[in-house]
Amino acid sequence: MARYVVGRLIQSAILLVLVTIIVFGLIHAAPGGPSAVMADTKLPAAQIARMRANLGLDEPIPVQYLKWVEALSKGDLGLSYTDNRPVLSEIRQRFPNTLILAGTSFVLSLIVSIPLGIYSANRARSAADNIVSAMSFVGLAIPVFWFGIVLIIIFSVKLHWLPSSGMYTTNKGSTFPDLLKHLIMPAIVLATPTIAQFTRFVRASMLEVMSQDYVRTARSKGLPESRITYLHVLRNALVPIITIVGLSLPIVVAGAAVTESVFGWPGMGRLAVDAAFTRDYPVVMGITVLVAAFVILINLVTDLAYMLVDPRVRLK
Amino acid sequence: MAETTLASKARTSKRDAQSPFHVFANRLVRYRPGFYSLIILVILYILAFIGPFFLRYSPNELDLTNMLSGPSIHHLLGTDENGRDVFARLLYGGRVSLIVGLIAVLISDTVGVLLGAVSGYFGKVTDLLVMRFTDALLAIPGFLLLLVVLSLFSPSLTKIELAIGLTSWMTIARLVRGEFLRFKDSDFVLASKSIGASDWRIMFRHILPQSVSPVIVASSILVGVAIILESSLSYLGLGIQPPQASWGNMLTGAQNYVWTEPMLAIYPGLLILITVAAFNYFGEGLRTALNVAE
Questions:
Q1: Which residue on chain B is closest to A268 by alpha carbon?
Q2: A276: nearest CB among B147, B224, B259
Q3: Whole domain around residue B274: which residue ranges?
Q4: Angle between the N-to-C axes of helices A87-122 and A127-141, in degrees from 0 to 180, rounded to the nearest 10
Q5: Which of B224, B237, B266 shows the shortest C-beta gap to A277?
Q6: CB contact under 8 A, B224 and A143
Q7: pTM check: above 0.80
Q8: CA separation for the pair B37, B51 (Å, rounded)
Q9: Model ipTM value
Q10: How far does the CA of residue B197 sit from the closest CA of chain A (Å)?
Q11: Is residue B103 part of a domain?
């Protein structure tokens, strides 16, 4: 067991190093990278040379990489090209907003998809199940940004119920009910693809457990159906949910970038999109590496959690 | 005696004379949602690629006396904020989305099949290197990876196809690697080896045809994902650049007019939704027809 844990830790570390190499390599080795942007500006040649030297762009790529990683390990992500502020503090300022949005939609996804998945698994191949399945197909196919605009049309333009953008109403202070009103639409939009995915997954997982012998045994000894569903099937069916929670994280982050842009939500995703626009490489790189590190960490934690929950993994 | 058995065999095989393709086509048609999706897709492709030849307006023709006009006999779905014909723009925008999806997935398939095959067939260090690289790319959320790549170039149709294709081959590679691991020690591979077939020949003439079904199914789903990615990027202004129409960037313009002309924002998104759902359902149909496990 200790060997397994150590092995997974080393694997994760290697993965993290590879991620930094890929991101750095992409940006610095590609034509159109930082050097090209520097050459692009209409500043006097002497000033460009000074800037290049300051940013270390004159050094060989491997040296630049090592310096970048060294700074990275100290939490220094460099300065933003556009406003010269430390990238880390910009991210730190935006991150809580993304966390509020992503967290809410994640909880929403679980609250909706688990009962829905159970419901349609219990009625497999019925009309209700078909409707749920069709809806989850739509949920997976719906473009997030368009769904956001449609909600704005319905709830802001037509009904005037909800604000169409931002996190707080300007000049009204930051109150919790105000935040909640701004949060509803983006959270629903962001949750939609995850709800669809989770529902399908819960349903499939439930159906698989239902076909097992011990469920038949439970049924044959006359246990009530609800007891079988919730105590015998659900508990085992929920184990694989741990995996899907970890795997869906990148999807939520990606969705957040688009959702935040639609609703003018001041989060990290929108920061990344804006930075890609202005070719602010330190910001793009910083966010990408941090999110990837987060994904690797979550995958590690889910694997370890699996080991604790499921003895079969431990023994392998 | 021998002749009669042969004859009876011939008769039975004639009665259920079903080529593998026949079986495949039958099953594909029998899964209704998948079959209807195929029809919808064919119609969409025909509309987008042949339809524009019959149009009265070009998609970029400005009609400044007729901005934001509603549907009329002249403009079937009205005009946008610059007086451009919305119907024409939808058809031309469809060309972009429908072609980007296919080409991006062709690129993903090529890279994924090559790397997956090499990794699964040769194993050992090759496998380790390729799979670690794949895992690292998978750890970076695809959309962020796309943002990194697209911040390097000024976007064009080809670059977007390449960017999406080169950032979404990982699932295909894993799939193909698994299939190669499954087959590489089987008898038919051993037989080809024993008569001196080259590695290349064994990989691509013998093993690959066995593992093509799951790749086809995954590709159909990936086309939908690629279309969503392209339209999201175009919506954000990082994809197809105006004035060239795409379903994504038509929504950027339309969002500014939702207060007065909400319908402008409805059409392009609805078409994306229909297209992507159709590819997903078609993929599901292919899955049943090709007998691929989920």
A1: B144
A2: B147
A3: 22-49+69-293
A4: 160
A5: B237
A6: no
A7: yes
A8: 19
A9: 0.86
A10: 36
A11: yes
- Over residues A191-220, the pLDDT tens digits come to 999 999 889 888 988 888 888 888 888 888
List, for residues B77-86, the tens digit of each pLDDT value.
Answer: 777 777 678 8
Q: Which residues of A touch B132 (CB under 8 A)?
A: 14-15, 18
- Asked if the C-beta of B135 comes within 8 angstroms of chain A's C-beta atoms, the answer is yes
Q: Which amino acid is at A300?
A: L
Instruction: Please name the residue of chain B whose CA is at the shortest distance from the CA of residue A142.
Output: B273
CB burial of A178-209 (b: ≥16 within 10 Å; e: otherwise) equals beeebbbbbbbbbbbbbbbbbbbbbbebbbeb
Model confidence pLDDT, tens digit, residues A39-79: 655 566 666 676 666 667 777 888 888 888 888 888 888 88
What local confidence, expressed as pLDDT, does residue B18 receive?
Answer: 77
CA B132 to chain CA mean position, Å: 26
Q: Which residues contact A213 (CB under 8 A, 6 or more apart)?
A: none
**How far is the alpha carbon of B191 from chain A, nearest alpha carbon, in Å?**
33
**Is residue B62 one of the residues assigned to a domain?**
no
**CB-based contact B232 A292, cutoff 8 Å:** no
Which residues in chain B show pLDDT less than 50? 1-2
Q: For chain A, which ranges sit under pLDDT 50?
A: none
Domains of chain A: 96-278 (1.10.3720.10)
Q: Provide the pLDDT for residue B17.
A: 64
Chain B residues whose beta carbon lies within 8 Å of the beta carbon of residue A33: 152
To the nearest whole percent, how much of chain A has pLDDT over 90?
20
B6 lies in some domain = no
Contact B277 A141 (CB under 8 A): yes
pLDDT at B276: 94
**B12 is a domain residue:** no
Asked if residue B226 lies in contact with residue B217, where contact means CB atoms within 8 angstroms, the answer is no
Minimum CA–CA partner of A204 in chain B: B294
Nearest residue of B to residue A17, measured between CA atoms: B136
Please name the amino acid found at residue B1.
Answer: M
User: Domain tally for chain B?
Assistant: 1
The reply to whether residue B152 touches residue A287, judged by beta carbons under 8 angstroms, is no
* B272 in A contact zone (CB under 8 Å): yes
DSSP state of B79: B
CATH number of the domain within which B220 lies: 1.10.3720.10
Helix (H, G, I), strand (E, B) or coil at B96: helix
